[in-house]
Amino acid sequence: MRTEAAERVELVFSLFDANGNGVIDSDDFDLMTGRVLQAAAASDEGAKAAIRDAFRRYWTTLATELDANGDGVITVEEFRPFVLDPERFGPTVSEFAQALAALGDPDGDGLIERPLFVSLMKAIGFAEANIHALFDAFGPDTQDRITVSTWAVGIEEYYAPDMAGIPGDELVPARAV
User: Fold this and answer.
1) Which residues contact 177 (CB under 8 A, 6 or more apart)?
2) Cα angle vertex 77, ends 22, 27, to 5°?
């Protein structure tokens, strides 16, 4: 696994631990789903249902694949090897990527404007400066928009263990030297 991918895994774990108790559980996914839906108030019910389903599948996949002792929580040690395994996790990431990107396009024009992108990413828990750096790395058009497919591909790349130098690396806070 590339260093960049390992750093992305650590960040994702911290975001998924939405309530900050040191483990991931179903309550974290409920909390994150609620925050994302609140940020997506203008989206239609179909898009909202798709993101609810995607978050639910995300949790179900994690719990099924990782919670070997059945305690209902995922530790960081359990999480690390799983999340970047495309064979075990790829379909879940793809569903989530499509649902989140579609949520960012409430008017259905295939484009995502920066303010909604920022709101959705902040609802997930990313830092605002990193969100803007990511949006810029996606190469917005002159009206400060990116395509739905650009964001969906970016999400999928974020979970690829062999990828480096991708826009998603902008989400990982710079390390002090």
Assistant:
1) none
2) 40
Q: For residue range 118-164, what is the model confidence (pLDDT) as tens digits?
A: 999 999 999 999 999 999 999 999 999 999 999 999 998 888 777 78
pLDDT band at 85 (very low <50, low <70, confident <90, very high): low
DSSP code of residue 171: G
How does DSSP classify residue 98? H
Q: What is the pLDDT of residues 99-122, one digit of tens each?
A: 999 999 999 999 999 999 999 999
Q: Which helix (H) or strand (E) holds 78?
A: helix 76-83
Tokens 């997930």 correspond to 124
**167 to 12, 41, 56: CA distances (angstroms):** 15, 27, 26
Q: What are the structure tokens assigned to 62, written together? A: 């994690």
Tell me if residue 177 falls in helix, strand or coil.
coil
The two three-digit tokens of residue 69, written as one number:
């002792």
pLDDT on residue 76? 87
Strands (E), 84-153: 111-113, 145-147
**Other beta carbons within 10 Å of 42:** 10
Tokens of 125: 């828990």
Show the tokens assigned to 157: 């790349």
